[in-house]
Design goal:
The protein folds into 2 domains: 61 residues, no CATH class; 142 residues, 3-Layer(aba) Sandwich (Rossmann fold), CATH 3.40.50. The longest helix is centred in the first third of the chain and has 28 residues. The chain is of the alpha/beta class. The protein starts with a helix and ends with a strand. It is built from 9 helices and 5 strands. The chain has a 5-stranded mixed sheet, sandwiched between helices. Helix 1 runs antiparallel to helix 2, helix 2 runs antiparallel to helix 3 and helix 3 packs antiparallel against helix 6.
Length: 216
């Protein structure tokens, strides 16, 4: 095979990560006199990195974060001195997802709950988990629409199956959904479905203080 044929074969085998860097790696192998095993190892590593990047991008898009660029690296912990920084970094390891535990972000508006919830979701994706993020009013609307369409059971099953569900602004203060009783009922339906499957939830809601506290 020549280089063009090899590139085509790699892409046909869905090894586009290898194909993208093949020519560069071959030149590197020549200049550095790499052993065949080292060349193959480098190409395999390139393929793995490309697949991991694509998987992260796909899951990050599927999560539908309100602020997709939120991360712990950009979060200003000095903004809120009451924030339990050690606990936040522990949540970022996503161990609570694997252990099927919930986390509750509680505090008044403007104390960093939503940015942190999204940052934790991003970190969970980086750890290999699928994440769904919804503001409470959006979740309510989706469940209401599914109910009207006759697909409520299926929709709740999908919410129950995802490893991590983040429900933001659980106080339901959106002007588009001025019916908190309905919102609470819909949110409870989603939460109850997840409780039956022992899947974790990260809700953020208003309260007297801002903390990142696993519920009792």
């Amino acid at each position: 095979m020549n280089l063009v044929e090899l590139d085509h074969a790699l892409r046909k085998l869905r090894l586009s990560g290898m194909a993208a860097v093949l020519e560069t790696r071959l030149r590197q192998a020549q200049s550095e006199k790499l052993a065949p095993i080292d060349l193959v190892s480098t190409l395999v590593a390139d393929e793995l990195v490309r697949r991991q990047d694509r998987l992260f991008e796909r899951r990050h898009k599927q999560a539908r974060f309100r602020d997709p660029d939120r991360s712990l690296d950009s979060f200003d912990f000095d903004f809120n001195k009451k924030m339990n920084r050690a606990l936040i970094h522990d949540l970022a390891t996503a161990r609570f997802v694997g252990q099927r535990e919930d986390a509750l972000f509680l505090g008044p508006p403007g104390t960093g709950k939503s940015p942190l919830a999204q940052a934790i979701g991003r970190a969970a994706i980086q750890q290999g988990y699928c994440v769904v993020y919804r503001e409470a009013h959006t979740l309510m609307e989706e469940i209401a629409e599914a109910t009207l369409a006759g697909t409520r059971k299926t929709h709740l099953a999908e919410l129950a199956a995802v490893p991590l569900l983040i429900i933001d602004d659980l106080g339901c203060g959106s002007s588009r959904t001025p019916r908190p009783k309905i919102c609470w009922k819909s949110s409870c339906a989603a939460k109850n479905a997840r409780l039956r499957s022992s899947r974790p939830i990260v809700p953020s809601t208003t309260g007297a203080s801002c903390s990142a506290t696993p519920p009792p």
